[in-house]
Amino acid sequence: MRWISAPLLAIEGLTMRFGGLVAVDNLDFTVGRGDITALIGPNGAGKTTVFNCVTGFYRCCGGRMALARTGCAAKDDVRALTHTGRRSASMASGEIFLLERMADFEIAKYAGVARTFQNIRLFQGMTLIENLIIAQHNSLIGAGLSFSGLTGFGGYRAREKAALESARYWLDRIGLLDRADDPAGALPYGAQRRVEIARAMCAQPVLLCLDEPAAGLNPHESHELNALLLSLRDEHETSILLIEHDMSVVMEISDHVVVLDYGVKIADGRADEIRHDPNVIKAYLGVDDAAEIGAPKGDRISA
Amino acid sequence: MEIFLQQLINGITLGSIYGLIAIGYTMVFGIIGMVNFAHGDVFMLSAFIALILFLALTQLIGITSLALAFVVVLFASMALTSLWSFIIERIAYRRLRGSFRLAPLISAIGMSIFLSNLVYVLQGPRNKALPPAFTEVIKVTHGGGYDVTLSLKQVLIVGVTAVLLGGFWFLVQKTSFGRAQRACEQDSRMAALLGIDVDRTISLTFVIGAALAAVAGVLYIIYYGVINSGDGFVPGVKAFTAAVLGGVGSLPGAVLGGLLIGLIETFWAAYFSSDYKDVAAFSILAVTLIFLPSGLFGRPDVEKV
Amino acid sequence: MQGSAQPVSSLSSRDTSRSSRFRAALIEAAKAGAIMFGLAFPILAWRTDLNFSNELFLRSRWPAVFAAALAAFVIRFMLAAWPRRAAKTVTAKAGAPPHALTMAARLAGGAGIAALIAFPLVMLAAFGPAGAQKWIDNFGVQILLYVLLGWGLNIVVGLAGLLDLGYVAFYAVGAYAYALLSTTWGWSFWLCLPVAGALAALWGVALGLPVLRLRGDYLAIVTLAFGEIIRIVLTNWTALTNGDAGINSIPRISFFGWPFVAGPHGFAALFGLKYAPVHRLIFLFYLVLALALLVNFLTLRLRRLPLGRAFEALREDEIACRSLGIDTVATKLTAFALGASIAGMAGALFAARQNFVSPTSFTFMESATILALVVLGGSGSQLGVALAAIGVIGGSELLRELDGLKAIFGDGFDPTQYRMLIVGVAMVAMMNWKPRGLIAIRKPSIFLVKAKPVVGALAQEGHG
């Protein structure tokens, strides 16, 4: 149970309100380093809201999100850091960032969190290779503004070459190397999804957040996606947090599943435990019709 | 105190004119999310139309009753300006509704430039002045060697504005057209699926906005007596400020915003410096857009990530 | 039409369809004519003029109204009776733009630069030192200044996608900076040029800081407001700027210290030439040209650097940029400052050319014109902007030349107003025909195998 022994991201008391509506209510959960963690639940449960809070696109109304870029997010160190009022520090247990105090681009740049979006947000008018190079902006910008950048010689050239290599590698991994110079907008939907993941990986993240990566994919493509995500975890040591409705993806590859309903956590554990949890079944996974008919009158569940 | 009262009267009058123009901005922005840059120049055009018609009625046809001339000019100007606005929408904006975000704005800027220069070319560069009309005034109070006067023109302007605001508020809230318009504002695709003729609703919105601007144009030319082909730009920007200040999409907000702008401009010119009165208005615009983009009465929109 | 069946009925059915089409066309044409009549009445029908007692009277122009209505009728009829089939199906195919166009663009670039370098000498040879003055100044230097301004705004609008409607404010800052620094403290032009650029850049950051988080239309309006505020301040702060009277006697440009005057210490004496005022203009031309080419080189280079790529990504999708760790506020400010500094330097050159500055040169119409150049030429395309500048500015200057038009339109003919009229129509027309501008192709800034130009239609703009 890596999320207890080696917590990468510890979320405590996360609350998000929109006017009078409480979208996320006092949520606690941990994401383990080296885990594939799935956040599931019915529509409107608050999953994307949690995502947006973690990645900094929403400013959460309360709570703490501690991410350990190296090491683990030990409770005492996190508490100590909170008291100092700073956003991040190198503590005994690791380099810890308090995400609720950081802006969206800072979380991506410093804390090493990358994400994809529910509605694909590729740069449609730019080629695949450009998309992947832009993801490496922060590693290039220093040299890019220097003299060698302006003249095109020396250090910058080497950095750019390395960035191209990285992009080439990832395009090859997702099987789109032959379309590297095509504009992203020209690709079919499934391919665009893969490119978005590749782009996120080019930023060399510690935590990869995927918002419904299997949406719109057929079973074959979902299967390929599973293989890709598993290899990201195993070969690149990237921890993955994903929102998903496709149970074939969730159950097959997740190490850890967290279930939300109406902004509240209703289950938290291994995939096989969740599958049989009666609360989860009632709220989300659904009950067999036969089973429902057999239930005694008082227990009739209205869907 | 007397000066204050006079400026109050003047400011409310000016603000009413701005409010009428602002309604056009706010309705169009509400329904298609676009700043109709050319609206100020439509206002200027309507003032010119009113001027020419007035001259035609008095000089060529020989009508002596100013009230009759005013009424005829008002309705004719409203009709002709609405025609112009209808055609402008069809030519410049309709095809760009699905296009990238800046295309309608650029088209609107082009249309604005076209209108002001067309009038310049057709009518010449000089200021055009009407012989004074409706000059009756009522003395309200007197003090400090200063007469506070309320002119018939001012009563007319504020009265017309109030009536029109009431009428159009009723139209938007209670009639089926108003419902269709509000539906298109919220979700035009869904409205279309439910059988609302979105194109016609949008056209009508432009027409109503233009008709109100035409009223403003007629009142402007009666009040100030002078119009110039470049006079669409600054009042247009000020009216847009009023629309934003009042909250985009809100009709009473637009008029209230207009009153505020009119009052601030009048008081600024009276007590500080009249050279910089436009700076006051532009600064309010900048401050409002930066700090209060949803205005005083509007709904803030949260963008979905 | 199958060959078999009754030829008579098929002929009549073709006839009736044609006659019904004509009838429909006639109705459409009548509507168009009526609408045109409604539009033309009364603004075209009568012209307001002043009589000798300074009162307004109406001068009728009914023939023009009927001509306009008739023209509308005829054109509408022709369009309806003989409809054009959809000429091009606009599909966003990857790599669809023809290779020929990109080749042409590249050729045009090289040939264009050569032509520009040769331009003053050709004018000199053709018209002599006196006659060439007008050509080199009004056509050469003026157009080049607009090209420079267009390229500067191109970085802000075309690359970064930030619609700036107050660009002329930075132009004014640069012009007034040179004017004031040279007349008050006697600073030389060469010192003032970079200072003008730096001051304008500072203004760009100051203006940009509060507004850059606004979305598209609001950003445009706020920049417009700022531009106007600066113009009004310039007009009214007479202690500093002398108001509408402007600042004159700005020192003329010199050849690195040798003034362009007749006499033993002048440029002409230095090179053993007979003095001619055109020398100064030729020098100014080459100076502006050099700056323009430098800006062009830097812009093209910038696109290949992470900063330039960040600009273009910003235009595409700001939220995606932020999710990749790009500080969009800093990026926008940089774009703004870069564009502003170019305008500032152009302003200094403008002041040097005119030797006089006044607020009337820095109106919103100027900003709109420069924006029109960027938009018409094709956002992001350097060549497109240059072509648009030559077309619009050169075209309106040419109008001035044609004395024949004076005969038709009367002595009050001011081509500047007609220029703006055409600019307005062109903006509306271009947005409806080719929303991406004339050159709507984007060349990728980096490629693995081969740079395949991207059709403009694919480029997003303002996704958040």
Walk me through the structure:
The complex is a heterotrimer of chains A (303), B (305) and C (464). Helices cover 42% and strands 24% of the residues of chain A. Chain A has 303 residues and is of the alpha/beta class. Chain A has a 6-stranded mixed β-sheet with strand order 7-8-9-3-10-11, with helices on both faces. In chain A, strands 2-1-4-6-5 form a 5-stranded antiparallel β-sheet, with helices on both faces. In chain A, strand 8, helix 10 (219-236) and strand 9 form a beta-alpha-beta unit. The relative contact order of chain A is 0.15. Mean pLDDT of chain A is 87; it is low at 297-303. Chain B has one domain: ABC transporter involved in vitamin B12 uptake, BtuC. Helix content of chain B is 72%, strand content 6%. Chain B contains 11 helices and 4 strands. Chain B has helices at residues 2-32, 39-61, 66-93, 103-123, 152-174, 176-186, 188-193, 198-224, 233-246, 251-271, 277-291, and strands spanning 128-129, 137-143, 146-151, 226-227. In chain B, the strands form 2 sheets. Chain B has a two-stranded antiparallel sheet. In chain B, helix 2 (39-61) packs across helix 8 (198-224). The radius of gyration of chain B is 19 Å and the shape is globular. Chain C is mostly helical and 464 residues long. Chain C has 2 domains: 11-81; 103-401, no CATH class. Chain C contains 16 helices and 8 strands. A two-stranded antiparallel sheet of chain C has the order 1-2. In chain C, strands 3-6 form a two-stranded antiparallel ribbon. Chain C is globular and about 85 Å long. Chains B and C meet through helix 2, helix 3, helix 4, strand 1 and helix 9 of B and helix 1, strand 1, strand 2, helix 6 and helix 13 of C.
